[in-house]
Design a protein that fits this description.
about 475 residues, Aldehyde Dehydrogenase, Chain A, domain 1, 2 domains, seven-stranded mixed β-sheet, about 45% helix, binds nicotinamide-adenine-dinucleotide
């Protein structure tokens, strides 16, 4: 059964029973089943990612399989604490009542996943949803058909469709799903589609988590360890062929170390991907010819406008391969400086003073990630004076992987947070329950005579 409306109806019907019936033991069992399925399909997953965009099996293990397994084991370890009913202290005016917060599953959740980490970004939120006790309709991306088909098969073998169902398809299917009154929508993808999702959610008043993207800048200060910075930048930018939401988009580098960084990046590219990177099996391909052409257009536009190709340029449209590219001399009016690059192209932008760099960052959309290489003073200043989903200091990408850090954007890079406890909270309603034992409040009920007035005056003194 993959009719979206029928699947939703079945899950909706079971939601009330699941609220109490899908207890901790059952949720742990579901997480165990998911872990077993991922482990059992490890080779299939690596093959699917290879088929979809030539992702190296080791990179698939590191960036698709291991993060999901980590998310599962973290949730298993902490589920008891996350699900605990928390008593709250009474205020002076609440003496005589006992308050508690009861986390409950929101109900039926919709997860819409992107193609760039098609397993990780589909199953990661699924772990949080199951931990929270929700049932899920999952729509993977149509851009990675092998992984989407595998997800559909794997999850159908693992869960009944009334708990987890996969609906394959593109925007038309997503549109049908978004018309249904889900209790929560967890969307990962572009800011443009994020707006469509939020507009649809406004009709049903579903709560949303939006994990979006944008241009994530890097600042390399004069005191940075250039060799280490180049290593982290080359890895963070070029794994998955740069098709990573938190990849460094462009680098502001202090002019005193710009030449050294360019040289060190070149050396890292050679070390990671060899002398002919476009045909290196370690370098993933672009997901489609359209994406290849878009990137080629960005590079050509920059070069036509006076930018310099400092490294790379090789690649083949038919094979969708693209060697890592380093550009210098890009300017603000170029298209490459305006849209999320989302490919293996890294502009280096030298700076002398930090202030204009911060102004530039603060003048644009709030980034999903911001990276700083340098000393503590620089990192503290940048952290304090900019807004971004996360900050990474002397590293790239890793804030995504830390299980105790919330992951999410701000403004156009996203709404809400994922991973670990924050992921659990995204799919939970923290329901307040207040029980009256001997509240004095009835003394303040009408009629409003002198006695009530006097008591109200006393109350005023207590609360101010
Ligand atoms: P996308 O927005 O094109 O697609 C994401 C999902 O939305 C897919 O499942 C797709 O089928 C669906 N979709 C597409 N058009 C739709 C429409 N009109 N209505 C409803 N649904 C629609 O994104 P993408 O190209 O798959 O992924 C790349 C983008 O995602 C980048 O911007 C990247 O930064 C962002 N991203 C963010 C994160 C994060 O965690 N914040 C992670 C990965 C990717």
């Amino acid at each position: 059964m993959s009719d979206p409306e029928a699947l939703f109806a079945v899950q909706r019907r079971l939601a009330p029973a699941r609220r109490s019936g899908f207890d901790r033991v059952a949720r742990l069992a579901a997480l165990d089943r998911l872990r077993a399925a991922v482990l059992a399909h490890r080779a299939d997953i690596e093959a699917a990612l290879q088929a979809d965009f030539s992702k190296h099996p080791t990179e698939t293990l590191l960036t698709e399989i291991i993060p999901v397994l980590q998310e599962i084991s973290h949730a298993r370890r902490h589920l008891r604490g996350w699900m605990r009913v928390r008593r709250v202290w009474p205020s002076l005016t609440m003496l005589g009542a006992s308050g508690r917060i009861v986390p409950q599953p929101k109900g039926v959740a919709l997860i819409i996943a992107p193609w760039n980490f098609p397993l990780n970004l589909a199953l990661g939120p699924l772990v949080s949803a199951l931990a929270a006790g929700c049932s899920v309709v999952l729509k993977p991306s149509e851009m990675t058909p092998a992984t989407s088909a595998l997800l559909a098969r794997m999850l159908a073998e693992t869960f009944p469709p009334d708990l987890v169902a996969v609906v394959e398809g593109g925007p038309e299917v997503a549109t049908r799903l978004l018309a249904l009154p889900f209790d929560h929508i967890f969307f990962t993808g572009s800011p443009a589609v994020g707006r469509i999702v939020m507009a649809a959610a406004a009709k049903t008043l579903a709560s949303v988590t939006l994990e979006l993207g944008g241009k994530s800048p890097v600042i390399v200060g004069p005191e940075a360890n250039i060799a280490k910075a180049a290593k982290w930048l080359a890895w963070g930018k070029f794994f998955n062929a740069g098709q990573t939401c938190i990849a460094p988009d462009h680098v502001f580098v202090h002019a005193s170390v710009a030449a050294a960084l360019e040289e060190a990046l070149r050396a890292e590219i050679l070390r990671m991907y060899g002398g002919n990177p476009a045909s290196s099996p370690a370098l993933a391909k672009l997901v489609s010819t359209r994406h290849w052409q878009r990137l080629r257009g960005l590079i050509d536009g920059a070069l036509a406008g006076g930018a310099r190709l400092a490294e790379g340029g090789g690649g083949d449209e038919a094979a969708r391969s693209m060697a890592p590219v380093i550009l210098t001399g890009t300017t603000d009016n170029m298209q490459i400086s305006k849209e999320e690059i989302f490919g293996p192209v890294l502009p280096l932008i030298p700076y002398d003073a930090l202030e204009p760099v911060l102004e530039r960052i603060n003048g644009g959309d709030k980034p999903l990630a911001l990276y700083v290489f340098g000393n503590k003073a620089l990192a503290d200043r940048v952290t304090a004076q900019t807004a971004s989903g996360s900050v990474g200091v002397n590293l790239t990408v890793m804030p995504f992987i830390h299980p105790n850090l919330p992951f999410g954007g701000i403004g156009s890079s996203g709404l809400g947070a994922a991973h670990g406890y924050e992921g659990f909270r995204a799919f939970s309603h923290e329901k307040p329950v207040l029980v009256n034992r001997s509240l004095a409040m009835p003394l303040l009920f009408p009629p409003y005579g002198l006695r009530v007035r006097r008591l109200a005056e006393v109350l005023l003194r207590l609360v101010r």
